[in-house]
Design a protein that fits this description.
heterodimer; A: about 525 residues; alpha+beta; 4-stranded antiparallel sheet; 8 helices; globular; B: about 190 residues; mainly alpha; two-stranded antiparallel ribbon; 9 helices
Amino acid sequence: MSETRFEELLGRLLEGDIASSEAEELAHALELRPDLRLNLRRHLVLWEVWSQAQSEERSEEAFVRALRLRQRLEGEDAGVFADEVMSKLGAGSESRALAPTAPTDTFPRRTGGFVTIAGTFFGSLRHRWVLGAVTFAALSLSMILVRRTGYEVFVSDEASGAVTIIDPRANLAVATIPVGRRPRAIHFSPSTRRVYIAVTGAPPGTQPELDDRGNPIFGTDFGDSGTYRSDDGIAVVGVDQRRVLHKFDAGSDPEQFAFSRDGKHIILSNEDSATARILNVESGRIERTIAVQGEPEGVGTTPDGKVVYVTCETAGEIFVLDAPTGFVITHFNVGGRPRSVDFLPDGSRAFIPSESTGQMHLIDSRTHRKLKSVDLPKGSRPMCVKVDRAGRRVYVSTGRAGTVLVLDARTAEVLNSIRVGARPWGMAISPDDRLLYTANGLSDDVSVVDLIAEKEITRIKVGRRPWGVAVVPTGKCLGLREVWPWGQNGHANSTRSCEQGPDFAQMQTVDGPGPGF
Amino acid sequence: MGWRHPTAAVNSPEENETVVIPEFEGLVREHQASLRAFVRALGVDEAWVDDVAQEAFIVAHRRFAEFQAGTDFGKWVRTIARNLAVNERRKEARRSRLVPAVIADLLLRHEDEVDADFAGLGIGRMITSLKDCVGRLTPRSQELIRRRYTAGETALALAREFGMKPDALRQALLRIRLTVKKCIETADEGVLP
C-alpha cells in the first residue's frame, strides 16, 4: 500500500467514516506492516491525549468526578431500592444485609437497567432461589411504584435502538423496548396513549455517502456504511402494550416533530431534504410536504395550536407555518444553528437557542420578530429549551458544556447554571414542575434535577447515547375520575375525568428535545 | 462515602513484609490519562474512551483484593481494559464502541505491542510537545484542531461551518495531524509510544 493511500484511509478511520471495504484494505496493510500499526497507534494516542488536555469535560478532575459519582449513585440507588423492596416484603431487618453495605465492599457494576442493578445488590446472596424470588417480587413492586407515581419517563437511546422506561419514584430503569435504529425525538400522545419516536437508518457515528458537492445521497440503502434508508420513520409504541405497534413512513431522516392540537397530525422536520412534513397519524399518510431551508430541526407549536415554528440550522432561519394547512406565514432569521423552540404558556413569547453562537433569542411570537438575543455562558452549546408550566422559568440544555441553564422567562437572562451529566440534549419536566429530566448523551444516563433547589439530585443509567425524554402518564381510563397533574393547557392544576382525557395541548410540553409545543 | 479504597496492610508475597496499598483514588489519578490513551490505542471509538476507562477502574476497584501490592497497577488495569474491549467486540455484531471490527480485531490481536508502548509512557511530556507543535500551526489550523478535538465536533459539522466539502476538510485535518506528528517526532524523539 502506498503511503498516500494509507494516509487517505487513516484519515477516514480517524474521522469515523471509513467504509467496510476500506477498513478491510487498511487492516490487511496493518497486518503486514508493524510500522503502519505503530503509525496508527501514534495518531490515536496523540489526539486522545490532546483532547484530554484541552477539553474541560475530559480533564482529570472531570474523569475522577464522573467515576466517583457513578459508583456513589449506583450504590445508593441500589441500596435505597433494596430497602424499599424488602420493607414492602416485611423483611425490613434483612434488607440492609442485601443492600451494598459500603462502597468499600462493593463497587457495583455499571447499571443498564433494573435487572443489572438487582444483580449487583443481590450479588452477595448465597442462595440462588432467594435471588429469583426476591427479583420477581422486586420487579412486581417496581411496576406498582410506577403506577403510584402517576407518570413514567421514556428515554430514547440513540445508540441502543431502544427506549428505556424509568420509574421516577425509584429512579430506576425498569424496562427497555427495542424500537429501531437510532431513535431520537420522542413524544407522548394522550389521545392514543402511544409514544411516537423518530427513528432513522443512519446509525450513530456514521455518515451517509456524499455526492461531489458534499451532500448526503438518499433514495437507496447504504449497506456498505451501515445506513438503511428504509428504516427511517416514526415508530409508534403502545404505552400499555410495551412494544412497537407499527411504524409510519415519514420521509428521509426524520429528527424532530410535534403534534397538532387535536393529536391527529404530526409535523416533522426532514433534515436532509430541507422540508417539513405533515403526517396524519390515523391514516399514516403524508398529507403535505413544505419546503423550508437547510437542515430543519426543531419543531414547536404555539399553545393555542395555531402556529408551528420550524428552526432551520444552516442559515439560522425560522419558518412560521399555519398549523392546520402548513402554509408558510413568514420566516425570520436568528442565525447560529437554532436547534429547538418553546413558548410561554400565553403564547406571547418564543425562546429559540442558537447552538453555535451560544445565544438564546427571545421572540415576539405574535408578530414573529426577534426582541433580543442573550449571550449564554461561555462554552454553552444550547440544544433543547423548555418553558415551565407556570411560565416563570426557561431551561436550556447546553450540550458539551454539561449544564442546564435556568433563565428568567420575562427577560431571558441567565439566573443559574446546574451541572448535569455529559452532553445533555433532550429534556422533560415533571407534571408538577418540580423535576427536570435530561438525556445525557455521553454519560449514558439521565440526570434528575430538583427545580426548587436547582440542583441535580441523581443520575439514572439508561441505554447508550440517550437523546430525548418524554414524561408519560401511567393512569388508565377505567371510568373513574382521576387527577391529571398537568393543568389546563399545562399551566394550572386541574382535574379531568377519564372520559374527558387529559388536555392535549398541555401534554405537548412534556416531551423530548427541542420542540414540545 | 465515596470510593476511596481503605488503606490496608497486606503481606507482600515477595518480601513477606507489611506494605500499604495506596488509596484507590490516587491510583486512578496516576493512571487515568495513560489508561485512556491505551484504551484509544486498542481501537475504542473516541466518544467511548472515558466510558470504557471508567469501567476498567470500576472492575479494578471491585477486584482490588486480587491486585498484588508492589506490582504494576498500570499494567493490571490495562489488562482489565483490554478484556473489556475484547468483550465489547464479542458481544456486538455491529459497530458500537469500537472502531470498525476488522481494525479493532487487528489492534486487539497485536495488543502486546500496545502494552509495551505504554509501560513508560510520559503523558506530561507528550502534552508539552503537542502544545508546542500545535502552537506552530496557522491560526486557521489551530481553530480546526480546537473545534475537532476540544469541542468534539465532527468533520461533517466542521465542513458545514467552514464552508468546505467534507472530503476537503478531512484532508485538511489529516495534513494537520501529519504535520503535528512529524513535528513531535523530530523535536522530541522518544516522546511518542
